[in-house]
Design brief:
Number of domains: 2
Number of helices: 8
Strand content: 25-35%
Strand order of the largest sheet: 2-1-3-6-7
Shape: elongated
Length: about 250
């Protein structure tokens, strides 16, 4: 059984999650509910849950304020939010699990399944900090991107990413300062995240940051900062010409 705590300052929201869990997730035991940052902290300390459903905005503070009270977060978190689309992008960039209000049954079941399948326990302070920064940013630009890899994850600053290159089912990230980071996710996943962040797919194997393009050759090579090169595929030429001309 997964032992869960539900923290939300709205009673109907707590009841919806509780009822759905009892009905559709019989492997989850609700050990406590709470309506504030203060009572939520007490509930977690008292019950030592495996999983916490945590509202972002509450009457006495934010869910982040609660997390900041712990020296070590050794429980999984599913954030619950009524935030708009720009904030959802922040959750995706920060690689955290979340549910939108009103909570849907299928999404709740999927979130619980992801928690049960996860090999690590808890959520790191680095991920929480990245999410807080992304939540605070404007509606279009995200500051941090969580890169899952075979050892765990790495936090990258989006403006420092020069190029992403497909490598089988993985993705190589080339970062300013001649750094390279390998992610266990494929290029298509990151294209979906970065397409509106100034990045452009130029080849089935390359996603580039337009800010770092320094030139283009007749041989189909795109020159980038720090001596990097990408190749321009025929089917991407028209969009490349349009986007780069408008840069």
């Amino acid at each position: 059984m997964l032992r869960a705590v539900i923290i939300d300052d709205e009673r109907p929201a707590r009841e919806v999650i509780s009822n759905y869990l009892r009905e559709y997730c019989p492997d989850v035991e609700i050990v406590a509910t709470a309506s504030s940052v203060r009572t939520g902290y007490s509930a977690i300390k008292k019950t030592s849950p495996d999983l916490v459903f945590l509202d972002i905005q509450m009457s006495d503070g934010k869910g982040f304020d609660l997390l900041a009270m712990f020296d070590r977060i050794d429980f999984k978190i599913v954030f619950v939010t009524a935030f708009s689309e720009y904030a959802i992008r922040a959750f995706r960039f920060s690689a955290v699990d979340y549910l939108l209000k009103p909570v849907r049954i299928d999404e709740l079941v999927d979130a619980v399944a992801k928690v049960r399948a996860a090999t690590d326990r808890g959520i790191s302070s680095e991920i929480v900090n990245a999410l807080m920064k992304n939540i605070r940013t404007d509606s279009t630009r995200q500051s941090s991107l969580i890169i899952p890899n075979l050892k765990g994850f790495e936090v990258l600053r989006v403006p420092e990413i020069i190029m992403c290159q497909a490598d089988g089912y993985c993705t190589n990230f080339y970062i300013t300062g001649q750094r390279k980071v390998i992610s266990s996710r494929n290029l298509k996943h990151f294209e979906g995240l970065l397409a509106d962040q100034g990045f452009l797919r130029v080849h089935h194997s390359y996603l580039v940051n337009l800010e770092y393009i320094t030139g283009y050759t007749r041989h189909g090579e795109i020159n980038l900062a720090e001596g990097l090169k990408a190749y321009l595929g025929d089917s991407y030429k028209a969009e490349f010409a349009r986007r780069f001309a408008a840069k």
